[in-house]
Design goal:
Oligomer: single chain
Helix content: 40-55%
Number of strands: 11
Strand content: 5-15%
Order of helices and strands: EHEHHEHEEEEHEHEEHHHEHHHHHHHHH
Number of helices: 18
Strand order of the largest sheet: 3-4-7
Largest sheet: 3 strands, antiparallel
Low-confidence stretches: none
Shape: elongated
Distance between the termini: 84 Å
Radius of gyration: 32 Å
Length: 476
Amino acid sequence: MKPVRTRFAPSPTGFLHVGGIRTALFAWLVARQAGGQFILRFEDTDKKREVPGSREHLIKSLLTLGLEYDEGPDIGGPLGPYVQSERLDTYQKWAQVLIGSGRAYADPYTPEEVQAFREQAQAEKRPFLYRNHRPENPPVWDGTMPLRFKSEPKAYTRVDAVMGELKTGPEVIDDFVLIKSDGYPTYNFAHIIDDHEMQATYVIRGQEFLASTPNYLNLYEALRFDSPIIATMPHILGPDGKKKLSKRDGAKDVLDYIADGYLPEALVNFIASLGWNDGTEQEIFTREELIAKFKLERVQRSGARFDENRLQWMNGVWIRSLRIDELFERSKNFWPETAAPYDDTYKKQVLALIQERLKYFAEIPELTRLFFEDLPVDINLINNNKQLKKFEHANLKQLLEQAKISLEQSDFSVEDLTKRLNTLLAATGQKPGILFGLIRIASTQAPFSPGLAETLSILGRETSLRRIDATLSALA
RNA sequence: GGCCCCGUCGUCUAGUGGUCCAGGACGUCAGGUUCUCAUCCUGAAGAUCAGGGGUUCGACUCCCCUCGGGGUCACCA
């Protein structure tokens, strides 16, 4: 029994969006579940498309989500290098093997000629098959022209770990390019060599490769390689539910979600739940639970739409599950500038108060402003309030003054404040909606805030009374 | 156009011939929790299981056709 080895093999052409990271996550889960290895490999055989900085970005994305790899470009490993552009001699070696066995040949046509064949096929509404133009006496391959695979078209019935049984006829098999005229291998060739050399037991990748898989099977045979287990993931769809999620349609970088204050565990949970569930009604899964319960066979065969609402809910669930110290550590970079003078103890108290209404950390400044600065008195908060608008300002002022007198004698502990507020309720004969609403608006000047007693307690006597005074003057 | 994949509430999904006039979650709406926002709780609306034919005593589940969506047919991955 060979040890399980899975890999994630992105091309360094940009950032990783949710769709891409899901493939990585599933490969990682399969490896971790089996106690095997997860490998990172860069497929940089298209020099034109390479984006500077994307290698580091890809690595950071993986590590930020906790998808640690055991072998990879930066950390090495026994079967490296893990960058395709550094493995050119390996591809040459295997190319020669194929040439030797008569299964590869030089492509003598110019790109224009091949393009003409292609257009001809298109005009006839037929799929383009290079092998229909296979040269009778190809020249000796000197490396300046493309090297093509000499396929042996046949029907295949294969089992894909997520798609199930798949059947195709010989018409989908073609002589694809192995090595380009620039000396670099194509993805089609390089990944097969690498997966073999790196002893990958699973190939988990996106649906865009489904159609070319029979070609890969044909090449495995020509090379006498065993085929790894192949698992094809459906695409994650954009908000319109049609096209696959793509960068140009606004798919966000996973690191952007981190920057907005989404927790890695929530992101992982959410991404896994797009197209996978364990068959129970459980929605929230820890990393460990995912490792224990994940099954490729239970991955949905249809594409799933990315629903940011659901992500937000799930992130809220995860935020609420954190202990306050942990939450504080995780959200350290999200405090507003006005919070700078305040100490950690104060900030933690504030954080505890807003924890249950926090969906992602970027909301912290808006939710906590009132604890760090006096907001300008906005009389409209009173004038537009459903309950308070029915009262004359003079009456409200009188009520607020009465409240102030009581609050002045408070030690501002939550217990005492609660007691006084209740006493006030009885003494004034007002509904909580009116009395509490008035005090809340006066002391916060915010459209919404945490509970009254808790808020006043944290604000403290001085700030609370100062704000109430400000409102009192405005009511004059 | 050929080939291939997919099609259950708005969304993510459960469901592998009868327990489903279809269950859960998000979202939405309504009510409750001494004020607002949120949390939490309760409830409601929401899916003729894409459509049509079969097979069967019985079909969301099996078969066929149609329609719809997607992928692929690169010296990109």
